[in-house]
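_Backbone structure tokens_
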Amino acid sequence: MTDTTSRSDAVWSTIEQNKRTDRFIRRVGIAAWSATLIAVLGYAIIVGFQVSAMIKLMAVGGARGIAVGAAITPIVVVVGLLALLIAVLATIGSFVRMRTTNLAEIQLRLAALEELLTARSHEA
């Protein structure tokens, strides 16, 4: 019984360690996404000033409409690539997380089953 309890404790200890690791990774991810959003926002502001200047030039005949499109293209590309990156990472993360959760659940169920079988064998 003690051996089973120590195995069960080891499983629970591993699960708690995995939870701590998950929390750390989640915090790092939040910090990284916050920095990314601030950088994209700053880039959008810079491009906004450029587009505004192009529109003012276009209004007085100093630039053509295609120049405004050329000025706004970088931010569209950056936001599009960022959205693609988020979609890919979210998909991969959800698959990995589901697998990890399933493995932890299987470990818990096996530990509980082992305890039940050990308890029954001691009763008989």
Remarks:
- The first helix runs from residue 2 to 59.
- The mean pLDDT is 79.
